[in-house]
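Ticket #4471: structure output looks truncated?

Reporter: J.K.
Steps to reproduce: submitted the chain below (328 residues) through the standard prediction queue, then opened the result file.
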Amino acid sequence: MSSARAGSGLSVWPRRGAIVTAMAALVLLPIEVSDAGWLSHVAKSPSKQGKSSKRGAMLRPATLTIPGKAPKRRTVKLAALGPAGLIASDLETVAATCDPSKFRIVIDVGHTPESEGAISARNVAEFIFNLRLAQRIEEKLKAEGFAEASLLLTQGKARSSLFRRVAAANNLPAHLFLSIHHDSVPNSFLENWEFEGKKSHFSDRFSGYSVFVSRKNPGFKTSLWFAKLLGKEMKAQGLQYAQQYSQAIMGRYRHPLLVKETGIYSYDELVVLRSTRMPAVLLEAGSIINRDEELNMDSPERRDIISSGVTAAVKEFCEPRWGTLGPL
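Returned output as attached by the reporter:
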């Protein structure tokens, strides 16, 4: 997570000591909102943007097409629909016919090759972690019948790419927007170390995922509903949420904790949550500045665990029988 900039997306922790390395293997095309490709970015302010060394295999960009008109929507009470513990006010609207094969979820890859987000304890850009996890989530959803699940990628500097990302998302008739990120900490919590002969920073003090929503999103209640489903599934996968954002030690980085059992926070000024016209949720999958958790986040096994949790939450969010119930 990061320091908030006025009008920016998820802003970023400032780094001490820039790490400059090329990411030449990643080449993503720019987008105009009317183009057939989707590109995205939730920027976390330039302070968290370093250049990183690139590890692992080259990652593929995604080319997407803009789907047709969204189905008409009607208000449906949640009481007979959702899992136990949710109330009717959590749900504003659902698709009149929620067919998984037609349900459109935007999987937003946080940051860009030029605006990489946080730098991990081992000098890897957050963008790399975000893209790998988002790709796995996309694969998992499509395997479960969500054929319209699509990655949203962008390129460019933090602020400009942020607003292009929101414009591209709003130009699409998507039912749900999910932004994928990995967490860091404020400067005051960082410690120095060396990895493979290079100076770096770490903080093993905090770990865990976090789920964020904005109360300024026009579909806030529906956003919160999906966030609750996602938090419930992450907990069911045996994962713990990051509790530091509710603590006084976080100072101006502290955020209201909406659901203490599963780590749902509000972050009202995040542009990608506030300005998107569809329900929107941001997932901080885990801390890459924590040395042990970074290794977990870099493993295929952890990506499978998280993508399974996301897929289960999306399946609960969009279940075919819901569209047949009508107002209760």
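Triage note (M.O.): checked the attachment and the full token line is present. Helices lie at 126-143, 158-170, 220-236, 271-274, 291-297, 300-317.
Status: closed, working as intended.
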